Amino acid sequence: MQKGEYWVVRIFIKDHTCNIDGFHARLRQANSWIVDELLTPNLQVHGHSLKPKDIMVEMQVEHGLHLLYSKAWRAKDHTEASVFGPPEESFKLLPAYCHLLEEVNPGTITALKTNVANQFEYMFIAHAALLHGFRGVIRPVIAIDGTHLKGNFSGIMFVAICLDANNQIFPLAYGFGDVEDEMSWIWFLNELKNDIGSPEDCMIISDCHLGIKVVMEKVYPNVPHGYCVFHMAQNIKKDYKRKYVSLLFKQAWKAYRKSKIKETMLEMMKVNRVAFEELMKVGPERWSRAYSPVRRYRLMTTSIAVSMNSCLVNAHQMPITTMIEFIRDMLQKWFYKCRTKAEKTRT
């Protein structure tokens, strides 16, 4: 009834045609909230949730439940909301989190930008240990990259990564934006410049994205901008459909002598003149060792940025404040492990 708590039965079908096995296969009694309770301890221990397909497999193996994909997806959302909190509430915690992070870890730099409606736009974080290490001992070659987040509000994560003396990943700074465009890259690199300046013999390496090239000319006009040779080789292989051209390019960028590069590029001109002209138009100073205006050391690709993103693949679906805390915890464990190992070194 429209008013009151009574129901009126209008149609009653005595003979049911539904198969009882089909009813139990859908497991209506095992709703997403029940699955949520089963998944919550796992999420609390491991810190990241499973994919819907993984949830379906786990429920079938552990509890004999044959879930539909849609139910597994709803259970995933319920579990994340109960453990991490609602994603929209996570953005409200950012100012307080940044304040506490700077307070308990002096030297850490954070920046947060909102729009006119006080909605999140960009964020930048550089921990004190990262800045201290970079200014003291790290080689000034920085790889930058962006990766898409997979949470309810999507977004982009920006990273700036270096290599230490043991050729291990040394994160320098990271940030977040609503979209990957020229404005977001300008904001991120400006914040990076405010913190580290333009160190002598510094070089920044990225993929061949035209937007990053324009941004580099605006923010770091006096800092050499190198390209990732892996991305360039992939583009050459895709555009010119000839493996030999890609091999010649590899010989050229790996060469330590300019004479060797000239010899290899002359060979490429004979094989594929278009590819030769395209590479010369880009400029050997962007992709070769010998012509690089500063030392690139061994950092010829942005693979270390990709490796950093792969370490955070499970965090990319978390609410933003939880994700930042996950990154902080991971970096702190890395630095503690390296420091402990160094303190035990006697040679």
Would you spell out the secondary-structure blueprint of this structure?
Blueprint: H1 20-26, H2 32-46, H3 52-63, H4 69-84, H5 87-92, H6 94-104, E1 109-114, E2 120-126, H7 128-136, E3 141-148, E4 156-163, E5 169-177, H8 182-196, E6 203-206, H9 210-219, E7 225-227, H10 229-240, H11 243-254, H12 258-271, H13 273-282, H14 284-287, H15 303-311, H16 320-343
Parallel strand pairs: 3-6, 6-7
Antiparallel strand pairs: 1-2, 2-5, 3-4, 4-5
Helix pairs in contact: 2-4, 3-4, 8-9, 10-11, 11-12, 12-13
Q: Kindly, what is the distance between the CA atoms of the first and last residues, rounded to a whole number of angstroms?
A: 85 Å
> What string, H for helix and E for strand, traces the elements in order?
HHHHHHEEHEEEHEHEHHHHHHH
Structural class: alpha/beta
Please state how the strands of the largest beta sheet are arranged side by side. Answer: 1-2-5-4-3-6-7
Q: Radius of gyration in whole Å, from Cα?
A: 26 Å
| Proportion of residues in extended strands | 5-15%
Low-confidence stretches: 20-26
- Fraction of residues in helices? 40-55%
Instruction: Please give the largest β-sheet.
Output: 7 strands, mixed
How many β-strand stretches? 7
Total number of helices: 16
Report the mean per-residue pLDDT as an integer: 86
Characterize the overall form: globular
